[in-house]
Amino acid sequence: MLLEVIATSLDDVQSAVRAGADRIELVTGLLEGGMTPSIGLMEEAVRLSAVPVHVMIRPHNQSFHYDRHDIKVMLKDIEVAKRAGAAGIVVGALTSDARVDKQALNILLEGTEGLAVTFHRAFDDTRNMDEALDDLLVFRQVNRILTSGGRPSVLDAEETIKRLVRRTKGTAIHLLAGSGLTVETLSGFIQETGVREVHFGRGVRIGNRTEGRIDENRIMTIKQLQRNLSRD
Q: Where are the domains of the chain?
């Protein structure tokens, strides 16, 4: 079972890694849902992290529908992330009618050989998540979907997550569940849904606040819970 933690600073990265996080999602603008971090932050995060760093590729928070200018920016950011040594990228794009934008993805993923690719929570904004999953299964580069099951809190979407876990079993795509998880609810959620990767942001921050610092004790508790579940 893997734990991914959102980091917005080098302090976040070091705290998360020290406490036992398995992977870092590096973003800026967490209050806006996460956007592309600076080149300097990418480079230093990769240098300091002992675990894989996945970089958010999102040029703005206006929507997940991108024009050709946005795509050009995103391509440059992907190249920068790759040069910085990132292990992966976190990206997503939708059409104006809320389907996976396969045309945009074809362009964006062309140069991602060697990078892990997570399709982010734009997935939750699609008109139909099963349809979106079918669309994403076509892309050999995409190996992960971050989702809250279409709800603000993943805890209100256990049946959806369980269904998506079943649908991705035996495919190249792993389901990464996030948004609304807490230390207290994690064990029950994992047992109910069968999900093997979880994603934490506010849930591992002091006061459950987006602007709060990483609480290393919460991460250590989560890792112990995961170890206990793995033994069961």
A: 2-231
Alpha-carbon gap, residue 23 to 183, rounded angstroms: 17
**Number of Cβ within a 10 Å radius of residue 32:** 13
15 token code pair? 């705290």
The architecture (CATH level 2) of 2-231 comes to Alpha-Beta Barrel (3.20)
**Could you tell me the pTM of the whole model?**
0.95
148 within 8 A of 178, measured Cβ to Cβ: yes
3-state secondary structure of 15: helix
For residue range 17-66, list pLDDT tens digits in order.
999 999 999 999 998 889 999 999 999 999 999 999 999 999 999 999 99
For 154-176, how does the pLDDT look when each residue is reduced to its tens digit (9 = 90+)? Answer: 999 999 999 999 999 999 999 99
Identify the CA nearest to 190 among candidates 162, 152, 148: 162
Residue 162 to residue 169: CA distance in whole angstroms: 11
